[in-house]
Amino acid sequence: MISKKKSTSIFLFSMLLLWQSIALRAQTGEENTITFKSPSKKFVDITLQSHNGLIRFGDLYYHRGVTPPTNTQAFNELVNMKYLTEAYADMDKTKISKKSYNGPTDKKTENSLIAQHQLKLLAGLVCTEETLKKYFCPDKGTQPCKFIDQYGERRHLGYWGDARDNEFAQLRSYTSFTKDNLEDLQSWSSTFFTNDTEIAYVVTRASVTGPYDFQKKGYWLGAKLGGRSQLINNLTFVPYNENERTLTQGRKVLVTVAPAQAKKLALQNRAPLFIVAKAKIYPNKKIPITGSRVPFAYELENQTLEIYKDIKLKEKIGEISVENLISKY
């Protein structure tokens, strides 16, 4: 027989688990977002769109005033910082680097320029307004500093200290920011892409290429995996077999849909559909880094592609088995 005291403890523990579950759903379920907490009050939290509890790459869904605000650019730049190791190793922390106009700029200076540019870009995206005021407001400004535009987006930072004509003020701002924040930002950036990989979902826009095929009992889709992503600027799909290579060639692929369901869907030619692939994403070392943009690649984590009617990923219409892929030109 369980004692009253022990029964109360079990109840309280169960309630704790329940509240934890509710909190997790509020973060990654109904709102379809994941939030990475900032390690310091100097920086803002990073919120990204998600699908089934994992980060959502590729096509994202935005409806101003409806979808929760996200920080995709801030995430991009934190991840870029992690992999710009050579540039940051050469970054001059004592002065602002300048490009040579009398000849080619040496490699170390070029790296320093890249790192300093990326650091300022990152600062404008992840620092709180209070932090930005400390390093990007003039000492005797007549106008209040504004870092958010009328649409709620971060403004592009101009000069360190907002001191266009004062190199001494720029230098004070830059060296102070570097001393106070560089190590913290690099430490935070290292927490993303653990073991240099991220298991996530990649959403690719496709389209219906004709009427319902009654013989094959499905719709033919025009689809091509890889390419543009609002998270990670350069994301390349890496195929590992012939069927996966087919998905890079722009060929039509069949998604099976029962006739009764097709009648309800009533999809027209060129109607947009969305392919959702569970993927493993990692830095693409086969492509050189260009400036501060780090290229990434992804491969399929499993051989099932989910097909959705809407970009919100609420109305699933079917699946495509890559192993049993049906395609045509």
How would you sum up this structure, described in words?
The structure is a single chain. By secondary structure, this protein is α+β, with helices and mostly antiparallel strands. It folds into 2 domains: 72-189, no CATH class; 203-328, no CATH class. The chain is 32% helix and 22% strand. It has 8 helices and 11 strands. Strands 1, 2, 3, 4, 5, 6, 7, 8, 9, 10 and 11 form an 11-stranded mixed sheet that branches. Strand 9 and strand 10 (316-321) form a beta hairpin. The protein is elongated. The termini are far apart.
Give the arrangement of secondary structure elements:
Elements: H1 4-28, E1 33-36, E2 46-51, E3 54-58, H2 72-83, H3 85-89, H4 107-126, H5 129-136, H6 167-189, E4 198-208, E5 218-222, E6 235-237, H7 242-246, E7 252-256, H8 259-265, E8 272-283, E9 296-308, E10 316-321, E11 327-328
Helix pairs in contact: 2-4, 2-6
Jot down its keywords.
single chain, 329 residues, alpha+beta, 2 domains, eleven-stranded mixed beta sheet, 8 helices, 11 strands, 32% helix, elongated
Briefly characterize the structure.
The chain is an alpha+beta fold.
- What portion of residues is helical? 25-40%
In terms of per-residue confidence, which ranges show pLDDT below 50 for 5 or more consecutive residues?
Answer: 4-30
State the order of secondary-structure elements, H for helix, E for strand: HEEEHHHHHEEEHEHEEEE
The major pleated sheet works out as: 11 strands, mixed
Our measurement of the CA-to-CA distance between the termini, rounded to an integer number of angstroms, reads 70 Å
Strand percentage lies at 15-25%
Mean pLDDT: 89
Number of helices: 8
* Rg value: 25 Å
Overall domain count? 2
- DSSP strand count: 11
Shape: elongated
Structural class: alpha+beta
